[in-house]
Amino acid sequence: MKHKILIADDEAEIRQLLKLYLENEGYEVIEAADGAEALRLLSSVKPDLCILDIMMPKIDGYQVLRKLREQSNIPVLILSAKDADSEKILGLNLGADDYLSKPFNPLEAVARVQSNMRRFYSLGSGAESKQLLTAGDLSLDPETCQLKKDGAPIQLTSVEYKIMELFMSHPGKVFTKQQIYEYAWGEEYIIADNNIMVCISKLRSKLSDDPSAYIKTMRGLGYRLEV
What we know:
- By secondary structure, the protein is α/β, with parallel strands linked by helices.
- The chain has 8 helices and 11 strands.
- It has a 5-stranded parallel beta sheet, sandwiched between helices.
């Protein structure tokens, strides 16, 4: 069965370009020209990944992402002409998995789609059945990709899941930013401090009201899970 990709962008040329390259890789592509249509398709078609433009009519991409994250954790690739760090951080804070600035190379866009799809949909589907990970009051089920705290589920993005999988496989071990990035994003680490800091901050807020709980910053070294 083909994976469905939703491209939400008000520029028809960009949608057509991405559609051409993605269909060539075997994906089924659905298009939305504005934020309202994107929300409707996200609800009715339930795509496997969303490429989401920020500046769209009716409802902008940030609002679409915020509403999407209330009900789904599918991978979201933000696509925007805004390439400032503050814009990227806002998108990541709202739950985006990746960010691509316009103008972009369509081959890079396809590579990022494939990377996010592989990371998200291969979780727990390996040849070996992975065991439940536990650390203090936290439990992580690799089969269902579900994190729980005292039995209550915590919704994670695919990147957040991979970070927790790394930490909970080795509680107390210090991981460098490079190790975290290459494990969670599945690609070579190239100055991605903002991405890591934002994801760690989001995880901390999901795990506890106390930002110093669970994930500890080891200054000059990296991060570790402490339970």
